[in-house]
C-alpha cells in the first residue's frame, strides 16, 4: 500500500509537507482533503486523524498528524540528504529549535493573515474585523508587515531564497491554490463555513 498524504494546499503545514516530499522524490498518494468543504469532519478522515486536521499521513496501518512529525518521519524513513535533518547533534538541535519556534512565532500569525485576506461577510462581521485589525497592528510581526517600506525587501528576499532552494516550478505549483484563495472563498458554500466562525474568532480574541 502506497504511503498516503492527506493535504489541502490552502494550508501552510500541508504545503511544507508536500514540498518536502516532492523535493525528495518520495512517492505518495495525494489524498486531497478540502477544508473549505469541511471534509475534515467526515467519518473516514476521523479514522486517519484524531485531531481532524491536515496534513495527515497514513503508511500502512500507521497514521500520523502534525506537519513537523510527518516531515521528520519521512526524513528518517527515506533517509533524505543530511542537510534536511543533520545527524550532527548541534546542527540537528538548530533545526529542532526553528521547528519548535515557528508554530507560535510565524504560523499562528500566518493563519490570521489568511483569514483577514479571504474574509467574507458571511464569516466575520465588520465590527469583529475592525477589532482584529487594531489587535493585529499591535503585534510586532504584523506591524512589520504593515510597514511595507521597511520590511518588504527582507521578506521578499527571504521568499526568493526559499523559491530558489525549492525550485520555481514546485514552489509555484504548491502556492497556486493559496494565491487564488480570495477568489475561491467567494464561490464557496457559506453554510459549510459556519463551523469555522468560532475557530476564526478564537484566533483573534
Ligand atoms: N500544528 C499542526 C497544524 C495543523 C492545522 O492547523 N491544520 C489546519 C489547516 S492549516 C486544519 O486542518 N484545520 C482544520 C480545522 O481546524 O477544522 C501542523 O503543523 O500540522
TrEMBL record:
Protein localization: Cytoplasm
Main location: cytoplasm
Pfam families given in the database record: GST_N
Annotated signal peptide: none
Domain called GST N-terminal: residue spans: 1-82
Species of the source: Neolamprologus brichardi (Fairy cichlid)
GO cellular component, one term: cytoplasm
Family: Belongs to the GST superfamily. Theta family.
Name recorded for this polypeptide: Glutathione S-transferase theta 1b
Subunit comment: Homodimer.
Keywords: Cytoplasm, Transferase
GO biological process assignments: glutathione metabolic process
One MF annotation (Gene Ontology) recorded for this entry: glutathione transferase activity
Catalytic activity: RX + glutathione = an S-substituted glutathione + a halide anion + H(+)
Amino acid at each position: 500500500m502506497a504511503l498516503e498524504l492527506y493535504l489541502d494546499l490552502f494550508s501552510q503545514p500541508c504545503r511544507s509537507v508536500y514540498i518536502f516530499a516532492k523535493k525528495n522524490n518520495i512517492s505518495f498518494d495525494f489524498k486531497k482533503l478540502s477544508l473549505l468543504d469541511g471534509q475534515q469532519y467526515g467519518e473516514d478522515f476521523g479514522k486517519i486523524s484524531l485531531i481532524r486536521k491536515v496534513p495527515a499521513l497514513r503508511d500502512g496501518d500507521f497514521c500520523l498528524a502534525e506537519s513537523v512529525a510527518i516531515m521528520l518521519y519521512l526524513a528518517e524513513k527515506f533517509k533524505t540528504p543530511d542537510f534536511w535533518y543533520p545527524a550532527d547533534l548541534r546542527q540537528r538541535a538548530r533545526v529542532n529549535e526553528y521547528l519548535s519556534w515557528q508554530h507560535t512565532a510565524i504560523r499562528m500569525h500566518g493563519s490570521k493573515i489568511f483569514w483577514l485576506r479571504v474574509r467574507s461577510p458571511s464569516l466575520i462581521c465588520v465590527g469583529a474585523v475592525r477589532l482584529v485589525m487594531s489587535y493585529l497592528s499591535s503585534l510586532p510581526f504584523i506591524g512589520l508587515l504593515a510597514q511595507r517600506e521597511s520590511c518588504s525587501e527582507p521578506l521578499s528576499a527571504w521568499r526568493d531564497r526559499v523559491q530558489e532552494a525549492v525550485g520555481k516550478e514546485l514552489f509555484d505549483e504548491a502556492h497556486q491554490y493559496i494565491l487564488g484563495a480570495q477568489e475561491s472563498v467567494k464561490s464557496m458554500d457559506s453554510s459549510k463555513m459556519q463551523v469555522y466562525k468560532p475557530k476564526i474568532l478564537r484566533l483573534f480574541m
